[in-house]
Design goal:
The complex is a heterodimer of chains A (962) and B (404). Chain A has 962 residues and is mainly beta. The two termini of chain A are 31 Å apart. Helix content of chain A is 9%, strand content 48%. The N terminus of chain A is likely disordered. The relative contact order of chain A is 0.10. Chain A has 10 helices and 54 strands. Chain B is built from 9 helices and 23 strands. About 3% of the residues of chain B have low confidence. In chain B, the strands form 5 sheets. Chain B has an 8-stranded mixed beta sheet with strand order 2-7-8-5-4-3-6-9. By secondary structure, chain B is an alpha+beta fold. In chain B, strand 19 and strand 20 form a beta hairpin. The chains are: A mainly beta (962), B alpha+beta (404). The interface between A and B is large, with 74 and 62 residues. Strand 22 of chain A pairs parallel with strand 1 of chain B.
Chain lengths: 962, 404
């Protein structure tokens, strides 16, 4: 502001002092091409040939004036943060000040709307594998603006961090999932317009709206007055996710009467070219209102939701992909009456409502407070079956490898069966009932059961949140040299985990019993009961019809409280900040069903008597009773963090800055319980996660040139993880709880955007993320079974987690998986006359497969003969590295004004033009072992499962605004 | 505001257009449209040329070592087995008027798809007729592994099942055939082609011999073939070893392992005061190779071929009893009955849902006799009965005096 005043004053003064000669000039208003709003602080440089004649900055309304120009031809270069550089030819004649009126510039945001709907819904079961990429925002930052778009296809994670470490806020409230920490983008999928206005910070920066962690943060305003003042409609189709997106929005902006209204609706429909069974039938709505009361108060409210469903993609082994000749094969679907039906469908409607109050008594102080409530249903369907054959088409016993294996020790040699299974999979169109889910068979089996008891049902697993949040923050500008920001937050989250019968598949009823338990405890019917209280009351298991809850039902209860303060200071060329945060986190499980396997004791602490028999409870290590029912022990954690940052302005074009931070975060609920579906037992030795993070950055910015170079180092210690899988050695469903997982993330980020100067309006843009994200500790693991309170392995070391270490001294490091450790992009960007064209080439390398801990134990490497040879260790513990990938992308966009009132625009994105269909984006190892070998000397792995990126795909978006 | 409403109405009309949704969404998103009922085969709807022979005629084709059937041969029969109780696993028994046979359909929960009494047509061409310790089986060609000991393998590839096993019409479940000891003798004399093998039968007047046979592998993860007697514990020669149930689940086995030996004078105790258990005397080994009682010896204390047993690793210093506790798993039990002078074993799997069900006390005390319904099989010239249903249904006990 001060700069602007000085600039304009200087201009005015010079006009007054030299009023005679020359008298020509240029004036106008720089506006955003999308909403015609004036742009403040746009830099305008007037050139005559290569000579810089003048330089001015726009005022708050976007106006500018360049006086004292001699007649002649000039080039006016407009450069504004977040907008593409724009060049305009100007001729000054006869000493007049030429009025250019509105000079519109185009936002530099990439063509695609990023959000969680940019990514397929993957189906990971309970593998523990997470596949959530980081969504990078912040078009001010050259690295984020390019990498955020170009790297998303490979599910890139910034600096190798888990996406949960990125804080995602709405209206000032941190909305990362209370139970898992996952990013909450799905809450507003399809509401691109309503959530377009946002502010971001990267790395461990502290923002005015929040303290954040070490992986950046984003705050979506989400209120009515932040939505653009226009009516907009768009139609989009893309070939990799859904056929059609229809979207409309309207915002009034803050009107003179102090009100602002905004609405946004969308529908995403249909399948895609690449993955059968993946489809969308999703809708979205958003209503918001703001009311400004005088100049100092504003209150706003919003209500939105995204009801709908989407089909999920499953991972398969490479054997299946190779046989099918298709790395995008999806085992989740099958034909029913000639139509594709997906067994795994996400069905969601989680509305969010918030009220926000902003208080701005003067220019130096502002404060806001938000109350936000999230509720509704989040379901995920899957097949369930009782005493019937496994319906999954790619079940390992249905594959050729189950019948023949070159390794003699595997004892698999039946050429006839190998040949037939191979025939089936390589001619899948002739055998759709065998290579996809055979819905007809499931219905047929159910149809002949005595009394109509379904053998197969479609269940819907629910994670239904009731999430009440409060957040308040303030900003106090004490002087030009010091600003204090701070905030408080509170969260009460009650998430109900349960499943219900979604579809009886033609049958009449299902029974609420645990069929895993039935195999072991058939003689003790009470142990089979998922609802023992019902059994005790009625003498039989509960009969289920569609819509009934069954299996498990419990609350994850989470309470979070916290506060933070941050002081920003500046002194000459130095500026910096120091901030602290403290919080208190509690969580516990509250079982709503008494499960027969873990009945505990009655409300008076007495042993239960079932079927006339007194049930002896089992006990936790601390002496408490193991139970499925009621409230578990409460886990409490004091959390804190401290951050500091310092920057130094080297010159008007260069700045160097550094950040340092230490964080102690509570583990999440989903990492804390051994088997939350069955009992209250907590993972032993649960520790807060400690993170030390640091980075140093060099920034260079001049007209059209933008460079960032960052070096970072982060250590994340004492993480824990729980995963579940069937264990062949125990013949039971098993849980693996790991703790003491330490990681080190170090590397550089480089972003560059520079005009080529060879061709006008053509820029070179490049980014490089080069890191080394590795495991640095030897974790411990405890293995338990769903069917028993006994511990299979208790706190054993996982010696090959960090490295594969052989007796001969060879050591191979293991890495943090599921993101490329080298990602690079080089491209050209051209924009002229509202055309913008981008083309880039990307390279991704050093990406690794997610590991399971079982394969890294002495137990698995030694095998039955208890002797681990180097060959066995190498085989069992090595971590797979994915092949590097090169991708080429192209995009073009153009907009036109119609009668200077309406705007019609279109974007076309073509991704993966080389049609590279062998790019693995992630995957996981199955936690299963082949143990029935001939020699009884060793074990073998099950094949890992992978996800692949689609080949060539496109997106076409046409929009209309007025 | 009017503009908003008009725009929203147009938008809503567009997205709710059924035709559009059908066009863009070839995906079934509800379960309302149920598939048509499954088509069952009749003799006339079977594919290709069908040449039926009787089950007994099929058995007559058997050659030692097994035979892969190359001719166009079909059999038909009604289902007599059910794996619902878990005592039959990955096998489907069918029978016609002439005999029964075990069709090794290698899938679990077959009772959900093949109902008792249902007709089944089997295209035998390409399948393997074999014997398992004398019992006729129809399966897939055997595995070609070096360790394979079986003449047939499971038909566990769905496409093979679809090509060979054709489900036909549902019919009333067959009644068991009441047989006499003489009938069994006749079948035993006929060996493989005995017409009773694989048939659902009823035996009346069985008396319990208070004798069982079981084989437990102390560490089932280690080699336990006959060449490895150090990992085999035989329960034979000596009564029932305290086993009173039809078989033993894992938990039941652990219970038996620690069942004290009680004499009329009370529980016996070791010199150190610990109770003597019934199983403490059971021996490791088989035939003439016996290493000693499970409670007293460790793998490290015995020699095989002049060497200590190193395959047990750290477990080598545990007693066999401790090893059995550590690796406990479900185990089958065969109970011996006398049927008119013929030994008939009732063999029950430890994975059967009724495995821990007690034998009627009158049988054990010799005051009752049993009528048993099950599938009759042959095992090395001995008759065995496999219960299809739980004992409360399959085994009727009456007092020897003749009252129920």
């Amino acid at each position: 502001m001060k700069k602007l005043v000085l600039t304009l004053s200087a201009v005015l003064l010079s006009v007054l002092l030299s009023a005679q000669d020359p008298t020509g000039g240029v004036k106008g208003t720089v506006v955003n091409r999308e909403d015609r709003q004036g742009i403040e602080n746009a830099n305008l440089t007037l050139l005559q040939g290569a000579v810089e004649i003048a330089k001015v900055t726009t005022d708050t309304a976007g106006n500018f004036l360049i006086p004292d120009l001699a007649d002649g031809m000039y080039t006016l270069v407009i450069d504004a943060p977040d907008f593409l550089e724009t060049r305009v030819e100007v001729t000054v004649n006869d000493g007049y000040v030429k009025n250019m009126f509105n000079l519109s510039v185009t936002p530099s945001q990439k063509l695609s709307d990023l959000g969680d709907d940019s990514f397929a819904q993957f189906d990971m079961d309970d593998s523990g594998f997470k596949d959530n990429p980081t969504i990078l925002f912040g078009s001010q930052d050259v690295f984020n603006s390019i990498a955020g778009y170009n790297f998303s296809a490979v599910r890139f994670r910034a600096r190798g961090y888990a996406s949960e470490s990125q804080d995602v806020m709405l209206a000032g409230v941190k909305l990362n999932d209370a139970v898992t920490g996952y990013s909450p983008y799905s809450l507003w999928s399809g509401l691109n317009e309503a959530t377009r206005s946002k502010e971001s910070a990267f790395g461990s920066e502290v923002a005015d709206f929040g303290f954040g962690g070490y992986n950046g943060m984003t705050n979506i305003y989400g209120n009515a007055s932040s939505m653009r003042r226009l009516l907009r409609g768009s139609v989009m189709t893309n070939s990799s996710l859904y056929r059609l997106r229809l979207m409309t929005s309207y915002g009034t902006g803050l009107m003179d009467n102090g009100w602002a209204f905004a609405v946004n609706f969308s529908a995403r429909l249909g399948g895609n070219d690449w993955i059968d069974g993946v489809y969308y039938k999703s809708f979205a709505y958003y209503f918001a209102v703001d009311r400004a009361i005088g100049n100092h108060h504003k209150i706003g409210a919003a209500f939105f939701g995204t009801p709908g469903e989407r089909g999920a993609q499953n991972a398969s082994t490479q054997e299946v992909y190779d046989l099918m000749g298709d790395n995008m094969y999806n085992s989740n679907w099958g034909y029913q009456n000639g139509k594709v039906r997906n067994a795994r469908v996400r069905k969601v409607h989680e509305p969010v409502a918030f009220i926000k109050y902003d208080f701005t008594p003067n220019d130096d102080f502002s404060a806001s407070a938000t109350v936000l409530y999230r509720f509704g249903k989040n379901g995920y369907t899957a097949l369930d079956w009782y005493d019937a054959q496994d319906p999954r088409p790619d079940y390992y016993r249905n594959l050729p490898s189950y019948f023949m294996d070159e390794r003699e020790d595997m004892n698999r040699d039946n050429p006839l069966k190998w040949g037939w299974t191979r025939e089936v999979w390589t001619h899948s169109s002739d055998f759709p009932e065998l290579t996809h889910i055979n819905w007809d068979r499931l219905y047929a089996v159910n149809a002949i059961q005595d009394g109509g008891r379904s053998k197969y049902v479609q269940e819907e697993r629910h994670v239904d949140q009731s999430d009440l949040n409060f957040a308040g923050s303030f900003k106090w500008r004490q002087s030009d040299k010091f600003t204090l920001t701070g905030g408080v937050s509170a969260r009460m989250n009650k998430t109900e985990y349960y499943k219900e019968v979604a579809d009886l598949l033609g049958g009449r009823y299902f029974m609420d019993i645990d069929n895993f338990a039935e195999r072991d405890f058939a003689a003790q019917p009470y142990k089979l009961q998922n609802d023992l209280d019902y059994y005790m009351e009625h003498g039989k298991a509960r009969v289920l019809v569609e819509g009934d809850k069954y299996g498990y039902d419990y609350y994850a209860q989470v309470r979070d409280f916290g506060g933070w303060l941050n002081g920003k200071f500046s002194a000459g060329k130095f500026s910096g900040n120091v901030g602290v945060k403290a919080g208190y986190n509690s969580f516990w499980r509250e079982g709503l069903l008494r499960k027969g396997l873990f009945p505990g004791v009655d409300e008076n602490g007495r042993n239960l008597i079932v079927d006339g028999v007194e049930i002896q409870p089992t006990y936790e290590p601390d002496g408490s009773v193991v139970t499925s029912y009621g409230k578990s022990k409460v886990s409490n954690f004091f959390t804190y963090a401290a951050k500091g940052g310092l920057s130094f302005v080297i010159s008007s074009h260069q700045k160097i800055s550094g950040n340092i931070g230490y964080f102690q975060d509570a583990p999440k609920f989903n990492q804390a319980f051994l088997s939350p579906r069955t009992r209250n037992s907590l993972v032993e030795g649960l520790e807060p996660v400690k993170t030390f993070s640091s980075d140093i950055n060099w920034l260079f910015f001049a007209t059209g040139i933008n460079i960032r170079l960052t070096a970072f180092y982060t250590a994340i210690l004492d993480q824990s993880k729980v995963m579940s899988a069937y264990d062949d050695l125990q013949n039971a469903f098993s849980n693996f709880a790991m703790n003491n997982i330490d990681e080190r993330h170090a590397g550089i980020e480089f972003g560059l955007k520079v005009p080529t100067r060879i061709v006008p309006n053509l820029s070179l843009q490049t980014v490089l993320a080069l890191g080394r994200y590795e495991y640095i500790s030897t974790p411990r693991m405890t293995q338990t079974l769903d069917n028993s309170a006994e511990t299979v392995m208790e706190n054993v070391l996982v010696p090959y987690w960090r490295t594969t270490s052989l007796h001969d001294g060879t050591v191979k490091q293991h890495y943090v998986p599921s993101t490329p450790q080298i990602a690079a992009s080089v491209g050209l960007s051209y924009n002229y006359n509202y055309w913008f064209i981008d083309a880039d080439v990307e390279y991704f390398g050093e990406s690794y497969l997610d590991m399971n801990p079982l394969y890294r134990t002495d137990y698995a490497t030694a095998g039955r003969d208890l002797n681990a040879t180097d060959e066995e260790i190498l085989y069992m513990t090595s971590q797979e590295k994915f092949d590097p990938a090169i991708l080429v992308n192209f995009s073009v966009g153009k907009s036109w004004y119609i009668h200077r009132k309406y705007q019609l625009g279109m974007n076309i994105n073509a991704k993966n033009i080389l049609n590279n269909r062998d790019v693995k984006t992630g995957g996981y190892e199955q936690t299963r072992i082949v143990d029935n070998t001939v020699n009884n000397e060793r074990y073998y792995r099950f094949d890992p499962k992978y996800f692949y990126m689609p080949g060539f795909n496109y997106m076409i978006n046409v929009y209309f605004r007025f | 505001m009017k503009k908003i409403l008009i725009y929203f109405a147009a938008f809503a009309a567009l997205v709710s257009c059924t035709d559009l949704k059908e066009e863009w969404q070839p995906v079934l998103t509800c379960g309302d449209i149920e598939p048509a009922p499954k088509t069952l085969y009749t003799e006339s709807s079977l594919p290709g040329e069908v040449n039926f022979i009787s089950i007994t005629d099929l058995k007559k084709m058997y050659k030692s070592g097994g035979l892969e059937i190359e001719d166009n041969v079909w059999i038909k029969g009604q289902v007599t087995s059910s794996d619902k109780s878990g005592n039959i696993y990955r096998e489907l028994y069918i029978q016609d008027e002439t005999g029964g046979i075990d069709v090794k359909v290698g899938k679990s929960s077959l009772y959900s798809e093949y109902l008792l009494g249902q007709w089944v047509y089997v295209n035998c061409k390409g399948l393997q007729l074999g014997a398992y310790n004398g019992m006729p089986q129809l399966g897939a060609p055997p595995d070609e592994t070096s360790t394979n000991e079986y003449e047939t393998s499971y038909i566990d590839v769905q496409v093979l099942i679809d090509q060979h096993v054709f489900p036909g019409a549902y019919d009333e479940p067959l009644d068991p055939i009441a047989i006499t000891p003489a009938d069994i003798r006749t079948s035993i004399n006929k060996g493989f082609t005995g017409e009773l093998w694989g048939k659902l039968v009823k035996l009346d007047g069985l008396t319990y011999k208070n004798e069982i046979f079981a084989l437990v592998y102390p560490n089932p993860n280690l080699p336990h073939k006959s060449g490895n007697p150090e990992n085999r514990v035989f329960f034979s020669d000596k009564g029932t070893w305290g086993i009173t149930t039809w078989a033993m689940s894992k938990n039941k086995m652990l219970e038996y392992l620690d069942t004290p030996y009680v004499t009329p004078n009370g529980a016996m105790v070791n010199p150190d005061g610990t109770p003597v258990c019934i199983w403490d005397e059971v021996e490791v080994g088989s035939g003439n190779t016996r290493y000693g009682a499970i409670a007293r010896i460790t793998p490290a204390s015995v020699l095989k071929d002049g060497k200590t047993l190193d395959s047990f690793g750290d477990d080598a210093y545990l007693t066999y009893k401790e090893i059995m506790r550590k690796y406990a798993s479900a185990n089958y039990v065969s109970h011996y009955f006398d049927f008119g002078g013929i030994d008939v074993q009732v063999r029950t799997s430890g994975y059967a849902k009724f495995s821990d069900e007690e034998l009627d006390g009158r049988l054990r005390e010799g005051t009752g006799s049993a009528t048993i319904v099950g599938i009759l099989t042959i095992y090395n010239d001995s008759a065995q009965i496999t219960l299809v249903d739980e004992p409360s249904i399959s085994v009727k006990v009456k007092d020897v005096a003749g009252t129920n």
